[in-house]
Specification:
70 residues, alpha+beta, 3 helices
């Protein structure tokens, strides 16, 4: 499990299992501890699968887990 606490939108997630089913790209950046531009690059290039819902891109938790190899 991912041991560090991840703070998003005033929520603290202690593991990847605690993440909601869908997260935003800025939240993905926090999880991966990279900048927002890098997170958008990973999603837009298809390295991490994103789903466009209206004007937002959401990232399934499953995609994060697969990318992290856990």
């Amino acid at each position: 499990t991912y041991e560090r606490s991840i703070a998003m939108n005033s929520m603290v997630y202690h593991s990847v299992e605690d993440l909601p089913l869908l997260i935003t790209v800025p939240e993905l950046a926090q999880v991966l501890r990279v900048g927002k531009n890098k997170a958008y690059e990973l999603v837009n290039s298809g390295v991490i699968k994103g789903i466009k819902i209206g004007t937002q891109i959401k990232v399934p938790k499953r995609s994060v887990v697969e990318f992290m190899g856990i």
